[in-house]
Amino acid sequence: MVYIATADLLRLAEKDEAVRTAMALYLAEKAKNGTPRQREIAEKILKRIPLFSTYAFLLP
């Protein structure tokens, strides 16, 4: 497992649409089906970072 700083991930997401979409879908999935701690963190990130707001509701 490799840990990447959120700031580094955001820089990647700003540059690449595919990365941004993948990250937003991953966070949305964790917010819906993750452990309580994963849900808490994913929801916090989705709310705090407007970059993902367009993709946050793509999952049913």
* Alpha carbon gap, first and last residue: 29 Å
Cα-based radius of gyration, to the nearest Å:
11 Å
Number of strands: 0
Listing every helix as H and every strand as E from the N terminus to the C terminus, the arrangement reads HHH
Q: Give the overall pLDDT as a whole number.
A: 84
The general outline is: globular
Counting helices, strands and paired strands, the structural category is mainly alpha
Description of the structure:
The model has no long low-confidence stretch (mean pLDDT 84). Helices cover 67% and strands 0% of the residues. It is globular and about 30 Å long. It is mainly α. The termini are far apart. The chain has helices spanning 6-15, 17-33, 36-48. Helix 1 packs across helix 2 (17-33).
Task: Summarize the model shown.
By secondary structure, the protein is mostly helical. It is 67% helix and 0% strand.
Question: What features would you highlight for this structure?
Answer:
60 residues; 67% helix
Compile the SSE list and pairings:
Blueprint: H1 6-15, H2 17-33, H3 36-48
Helix pairs in contact: 1-2, 2-3
